């Protein structure tokens, strides 16, 4: 993987390269980018060993700019964070904690010994708390901005490790799905900590719709776990069914059977809804997408709020999108399958 670089931005960062080697002084701002993701199938079950199918969402992006600051490290620690592009970022404190851990780990991995303060500006349009991977995308963008600033190469393994460092601070133990998919260019099958890029044989578009409600992933995880405790065999049955649906969807995506792919989405929604992980608004949006000609629809992400995802033929995408807005979606994004690269590597 080559280091992701962008042209130097005109920022309001105070830049000072005092104490930095001559080689680094030529670059006073580093830039990195990443994008959102959506889970197509496999949420929740993936933490119990089932596979998950995840989709990159390039329409929703984040750009990180990192520059030298005139602050001393004693002022606010060795990193300060400014977030733009969203009306409200209540998780900024957690993101800052994750960023500090990421930056410290980056410096350790690269053998960097300077203690100059860094200013990080994140321009993020990915809505937080919607299951779209905003924290992982921000972390990945910062990784490549640091690599750009310090003129270092970052391997895929290093990038994953660094993003996970931040994710584990923000969310606790992270599955790794987000860390991989926010840098992917094609759908991924994620299983047992490894990811495989999937071939795409289907036309059509995925439509992601925001319910406007912040997802409650921790509550959803606990609700599911409690249900498993109360009903012997429930966990095994949930994982078995989730695995079956995800494998069928993977094969349908590769073989060009969009109707079957859509049907598996809807069946997975029923699996999550039966576990109490959906909401009335999302159920209404799923119904609206199907009534407008969608091939399938389901909640995506942790659940109990957040987003849903629908599959539609290209000619039906506009009608499905309109119907989703009429059912309460506050914003939508269309991801055409033909715009993604999928060669199965």
How many DSSP helices?
11
Predict the CATH topology of the largest domain.
Ribosomal Protein S5, domain 2
- CATH architecture annotation of the largest domain: 2-Layer Sandwich
The top-level CATH class of the largest domain is: Alpha Beta
Mean pLDDT over the residues: 86
Write down how many β-strands occur, each being a DSSP E stretch of 2 or more residues: 10
Q: Describe the largest sheet.
A: 6 strands, mixed
How far apart are the termini? 14 Å
Q: Roughly how much helix do the residues carry, as a percent range? A: 40-55%
- Output the structural class: alpha+beta
SSE pattern, N- to C-terminal: HEEHEHEHHHEEEHHHHEEHE
Q: Poorly predicted ranges (pLDDT <50, ≥5 residues)?
A: 1-26
Strand content: 15-25%
How many domains? The number is 2
Bulk shape: globular
Radius of gyration: 21 Å
Key traits:
345 residues, Ribosomal Protein S5, domain 2, Alpha-Beta Plaits, 2 domains, six-stranded mixed β-sheet, four-stranded antiparallel β-sheet, globular, disordered N terminus
Q: Could you provide a short overview of the structure?
A:
The protein has 11 helices and 10 strands. The chain has 345 residues and is of the alpha+beta class.
């Amino acid at each position: 993987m080559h280091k992701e670089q962008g042209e130097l931005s005109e920022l309001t960062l105070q830049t000072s390269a005092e104490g930095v080697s001559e080689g680094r002084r030529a670059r006073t701002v580093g830039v990195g980018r990443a994008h959102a993701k959506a889970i197509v199938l496999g949420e929740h079950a993936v933490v119990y060993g089932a596979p998950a199918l995840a989709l990159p969402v390039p329409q929703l992006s984040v750009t990180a700019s990192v520059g030298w600051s005139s602050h001393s490290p004693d002022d606010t620690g060795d990193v300060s964070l400014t977030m733009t592009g969203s009306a409200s970022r209540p998780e900024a404190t957690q993101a800052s904690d994750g960023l500090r851990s990421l930056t410290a780990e980056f410096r350790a991995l690269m053998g960097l010994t300077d203690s100059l303060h860094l200013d990080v500006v994140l321009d993020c349009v990915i809505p937080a708390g919607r299951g779209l991977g905003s924290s992982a995308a921000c972390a990945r963008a910062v990784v490549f901005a640091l690599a750009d600033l310090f003129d270092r190469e970052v391997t895929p393994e290093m990038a994953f490790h660094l993003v996970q460092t931040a994710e584990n601070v923000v969310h606790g133990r992270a599955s790794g799905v987000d860390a991989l998919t926010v840098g992917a260019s094609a759908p991924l099958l994620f299983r047992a900590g490894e990811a495989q890029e999937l071939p795409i044989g289907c036309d059509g578009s995925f439509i992601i719709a925001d319910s406007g409600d912040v997802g409650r992933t921790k509550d959803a995880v606990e609700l599911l776990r409690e249900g498993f405790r109360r009903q012997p065999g429930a966990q095994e049955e949930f994982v078995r069914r989730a695995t079956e649906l995800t494998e069928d969807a993977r094969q349908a995506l590769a073989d060009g059977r969009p109707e079957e792919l859509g049907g598996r989405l809807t069946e997975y929604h029923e699996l999550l809804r039966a576990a109490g992980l959906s909401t009335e608004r999302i159920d209404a949006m799923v119904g609206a997408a199907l009534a407008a000609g969608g091939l399938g629809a389901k909640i995506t992400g942790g659940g109990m709020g957040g987003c849903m995802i629908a599959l539609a033929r290209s000619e039906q995408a506009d009608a499905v999108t309109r119907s989703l807005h009429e059912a309460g979606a506050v914003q939508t994004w269309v991801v055409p399958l033909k715009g993604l690269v999928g060669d199965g590597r």
